[in-house]
Amino acid sequence: MPSKPLLLIDQDGVLADFDQGVRLAWRAQYHSEAPIGPRQHFYLRDDMAPQYHPQLHDIYTRPGFFATLPPIAGAVEALHTLLAHGLDVHICTAPISNYQNCVAEKFMWVEQHLGHEWVSRIILTKDKTWVRGDILIDDKPQISGSLTPLWTQWLYDAPYNRQYHDRRRVCWQDTASWADLLA
Ligand SMILES: Cc1cn([C@H]2C[C@H](O)[C@@H](COP(=O)(O)O)O2)c(=O)[nH]c1=O
Ligand SMILES: [Mg+2]
């Protein structure tokens, strides 16, 4: 690893809690827990019965969903720490194809939780293999695209990726898991 790696940090599932956002919105609307089974797949719909898919889609495409996602514990503090240690940190995030609310709200989330100066650090792309970097911290276990990536993925820990043991695993609250970045 270079002494000061160029870091790409995913947003949903790493900084902003997409799963929890769905659970909160579902509870608020239906006054019951979201019918989500054990989290074994990256996409929530794959852990939900098909009859609930339209309601799920309605939740994550509606205005305000992406802007109001709760932060993942320790994420905001970790990003400020990484920047303060001189790392070149960028937020590398994929919008949903129903982009109308998602795109602007991803920027709003970053401004609200990290500060305006972080907005210029956002890289929005549907294909992360096109983005240059040394390390990509991302919760998605299978990242595909049209190029061979230049970065190495560190897997951000989540219940749906725990069956993968082929990559370094990171969790913001486990500071030892990313302490090497500060060395
Ligand atoms: C878990 C999950 C995610 N999505 C969407 C939300 C984001 O726009 C992308 C993931 O982006 P990332 O940069 O790879 O974090 O996928 C979704 O539509 N359904 C889901 O269950
Ligand atoms: Mg993600």
TrEMBL record:
InterPro entries named among the record's database cross-references: 5'(3')-deoxyribonucleotidase (IPR010708), HAD-like_sf (IPR036412), HAD_sf (IPR023214)
GO biological process: pyrimidine deoxyribonucleotide catabolic process
Active site per the UniProt annotation: D10 (nucleophile), D12 (proton donor)
Pfam families per the UniProt record, alphabetical: NT5C
Source organism superkingdom: Bacteria
One Gene Ontology molecular-function label: 5'-nucleotidase activity
Family: Belongs to the 5'(3')-deoxyribonucleotidase family.
Name this protein carries in UniProt: 5'-3'-deoxyribonucleotidase
